[in-house]
Amino acid sequence: MTKPVSKKCPCGGGKYAKCCEPFHAGTKHARTPEELMRSRYSAYARGREQYLRDTWHASSLPSDFNLSDDNPTWLQLQILATGTHGNRGYVHFKAYFQIDDDIGVMEEQSHFVRENGRWYYLDGEAVE
Ligand SMILES: [Zn+2]
To answer: What residues does the YchJ-like middle NTF2-like domain cover (predicted)?
Structure first.
């Protein structure tokens, strides 16, 4: 059985077609770290591996990045705080996921950098 693909955007921002899909399709580029964060979360949820590579800063992209390794079912994204300072930005978020019957949450502060007008994910640190 295959699950029907929801029309809702995984990030919680409304319809996928009007929310993160244009970013994934390359017809729009994220204007803020929050948009990039949301679209990257949705890319994890939708298995958009190439988008994750494309929006990951070259200096920190793991050479062996592979979405099929240990990608849980992503349930919900919660943005707690975000800000920019020049070409640097951050997003503090919680992401809820499911592995088998277990629900987990990761809380992280992600760092973003803007180069040539485009935002990229740089790195993140776990928030305890
Ligand atoms: Zn979205």
So the answer is: 32-124
Q: SS3 sequence, the chain?
A: CCCCCCCECCCCCCEHHHCCHHHHHCCCCCCCHHHHHHHHHHHHHHCCHHHHHHCECCCCCCCCCCCCCCCCEEEEEEEEEEEEECCEEEEEEEEEEEECCEEEEEEEEEEEEEECCEEEEEEEEECC
* Predicted confidence (pLDDT) at residue 2 exceeds the cutoff of 70: no
Q: How far is the CA of 19 from the centre of ligand 1 (A)?
A: 4
Question: 44-92, pLDDT tens digit by residue?
Answer: 999 999 999 999 999 999 999 998 877 899 999 999 999 999 999 999 9
In a domain, 69, yes or no: yes
Distance 120 CA to ligand 1 centre (A): 17
**Any domain includes 7:** no
Assigned domain for 22 exists? yes
The CATH number given to whatever domain includes residue 42 is 3.10.450.50
Enclosing domain of residue 41? 16-126
Q: How far is the CA of 77 from the centre of ligand 1 (A)?
A: 10
Give 6 or 2, the one with higher predicted confidence: 6
